[in-house]
């Protein structure tokens, strides 16, 4: 089987190529998108690893060309600069996977073996839900400014969002309050064939039970006191587009019966009318409750739950994806318009540590409020005293003294689950990159997005001994 590695960094081509060759693949390499397109025309490929940043063309262009001309090829996009939104777009276009550099070579091997075993369905992701040519051609790609994160948990969510977006399946989004369920619902809509049609969000928990049917399905004049004119409901307003039913488990049993019929028949009946109206909408629902438990305890209809959760997307709380706290904080800080148009603020190391250590029971919504407050109060640099008192006084973190000694490389797996000072995280990350590049400091600096002099200072500061590096990749010991 033939594999192609496309990257302008020779060390990346070497690392990925060596892993694939050791697994029995015939491997070719390209350092530009143009060269990849030449090889596309000359050979049939089973697997392609491609960098996202390639100069004139990008990895998404390569992905699209390969999917058009060789739809059976499985494409893995690689990036050292992207965010989880890139995983969403990659999945929506039919990519096999989306990897952040530096990556674990075992993951490369696992992907290659999965392709060989034929575990992926043609033109789809791991759950067979996505990305054929017909759906991708109708997609509208936009930046989702509030979808920010790099944690593995969030990347996996974005991959699923991307795959389900091109389908017409109902989706149930679960997660605690403040985890961004509506933002994700909007991302699904924006990448769907319905992107040019309305997106109508309905907070079911905020509408009185006696009014929700009228709000959603409309009413005719005289159907109840105060109904002085005929009125279209939100369902009709969303015709052709998407209806987002937030807090769906807050609805009454009577309304759930009517909603189920609407989903089954694709028709609504305005309150007080005998006429059925056909409406074409996609439904995305959300809840911060355990929907299956609500069903077991009789508060939510089982048949409606089955109808709504063709695909379930669970958004993990912020405390379970702490790697996303700092990118989110910086994103929210950049959104704040300071008086006089002054430059965006930065965060002191002590403030960053407090943000990372706090448990964030209100999730992303609480983080945004805290950052906006801090930016408004600070003088160009956010310091601990600018943060809310509950964050300054949080007790759910390890004392500073307990974390002074950095874990050894053999402790990496457990250390990543701990709450560590930023300096320790920096040391671990630099050490991993140096290990992945065989001690090649030039390649490591490129992967880290810094110059070699800065990397040398980090190595000296953290007393790392991975070899001096000579600009050439060192092959790992067998």
Describe the protein in words.
The chain is built from 21 helices and 18 strands. The protein has 478 residues and is α/β, with parallel strands linked by helices. It folds into four domains: 2-142, Response regulator (Rossmann fold, 3-Layer(aba) Sandwich), CATH 3.40.50.2300; 171-314, P-loop containing nucleotide triphosphate hydrolases (Rossmann fold); 318-392, Orthogonal Bundle (Helicase, Ruva Protein, domain 3); 400-462, Homeodomain-like (Arc Repressor Mutant, subunit A, Orthogonal Bundle). A five-stranded parallel β-sheet has the order 2-1-3-6-7, sandwiched between helices. Helix 1 links the parallel strand 1 (2-6) and strand 2. Helix 4 (84-92) packs parallel to helix 7 (152-165) and helix 20 crosses helix 21 (452-462). The chain starts with a strand and ends in a 16-residue tail after the last helix. Residues 119-145, 396-417 and 466-478 have low confidence and may be disordered.
Secondary structure layout:
Blueprint: E1 2-6, H1 10-22, E2 26-30, H2 33-42, E3 47-51, E4 53-54, E5 57-58, H3 59-69, E6 74-79, H4 84-92, E7 97-100, H5 105-116, H6 133-136, H7 152-165, E8 171-174, H8 181-190, E9 199-203, H9 212-217, E10 218-219, E11 231-232, H10 234-237, E12 242-246, H11 253-265, E13 267-269, E14 276-278, E15 282-287, H12 291-296, H13 302-308, E16 311-314, H14 325-335, E17 346-347, H15 349-357, H16 363-377, E18 381-382, H17 389-392, H18 412-415, H19 422-436, H20 441-448, H21 452-462
Parallel strand pairs: 1-2, 1-3, 3-6, 6-7, 8-15, 8-16, 9-12, 12-15, 17-18
Antiparallel strand pairs: 4-5, 10-11, 13-14
Helix pairs in contact: 1-5, 2-3, 4-7, 7-8, 14-16, 19-20, 20-21
């Amino acid at each position: 089987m033939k594999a192609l590695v496309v990257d302008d960094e020779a060390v990346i081509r070497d690392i990925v190529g060596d892993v694939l060759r050791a697994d029995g693949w015939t491997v070719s390499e390209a350092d530009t998108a143009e060269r990849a397109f030449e090889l596309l025309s000359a050979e049939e490929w089973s697997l392609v690893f491609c960098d996202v940043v390639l100069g004139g063309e990008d990895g998404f262009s390569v992905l699209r060309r390969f999917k058009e001309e060789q739809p059976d090829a499985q494409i893995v996009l690689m990036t050292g600069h992207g965010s989880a939104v890139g995983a969403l777009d990659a999945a929506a276009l039919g990519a096999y996977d989306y990897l952040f550099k530096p990556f674990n070579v075992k993951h490369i091997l696992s992907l290659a073996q999965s392709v060989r075993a034929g575990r992926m369905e043609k033109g789809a992701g791991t759950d067979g839900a996505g990305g054929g040519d017909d759906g991708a051609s109708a997609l509208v790609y936009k930046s989702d400014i509030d979808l920010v994160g790099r944690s593995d948990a969030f990347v996996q969510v974005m991959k699923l969002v991307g795959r389900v977006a091109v389908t017409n399946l109902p989706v149930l989004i679960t997660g605690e309050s403040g985890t961004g369920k509506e933002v994700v619902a909007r991302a699904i809509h924006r990448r769907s064939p319905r992107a040019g049609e309305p997106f109508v969000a309905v907070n079911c928990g905020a509408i009185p039970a006696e009014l929700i049917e009228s709000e959603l399905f409309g009413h005719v004049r005289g159907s109840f006191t105060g109904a002085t004119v005929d009125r279209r409901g939100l369902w009709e307003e969303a015709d052709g587009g998407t209806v987002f039913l937030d807090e769906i488990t807050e609805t009454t049993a009577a309304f759930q019966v009517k909603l189920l019929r609407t989903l089954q028949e694709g028709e609504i009946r305005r309150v007080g009318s005998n006429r059925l109206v056909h409406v074409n909408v996609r439904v995305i629902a959300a809840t911060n409750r355990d929907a299956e438990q609500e069903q077991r305890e009789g508060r939510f209809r089982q048949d409606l739950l089955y109808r709504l959760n063709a695909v379930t997307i669970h958004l993990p709380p912020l405390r379970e994806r702490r790697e996303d706290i700092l990118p989110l904080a910086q994103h929210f800080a950049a959104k704040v318009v300071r008086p006089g148009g002054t430059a965006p603020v930065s965060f002191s190391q002590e403030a960053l540590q407090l943000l990372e250590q706090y448990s964030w029971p209100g999730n992303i919504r609480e983080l945004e409020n805290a950052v906006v407050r801090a930016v408004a109060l600070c003088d160009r640099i956010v310091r601990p005293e600018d943060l809310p008192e509950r964050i300054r006084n949080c007790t759910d973190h390890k004392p500073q003294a307990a974390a002074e000694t950095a874990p050894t490389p053999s402790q990496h797996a457990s250390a990543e689950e701990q709450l560590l000072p930023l300096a320790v995280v920096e040391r671990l990350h630099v050490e991993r990159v140096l290990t992945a590049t065989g001690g090649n400091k030039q390649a490591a600096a490129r992967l880290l997005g810094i110059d070699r002099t800065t990397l040398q200072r980090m190595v000296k500061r953290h007393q790392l001994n991975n070899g001096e590096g000579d600009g050439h990749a060192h092959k790992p010991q067998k």
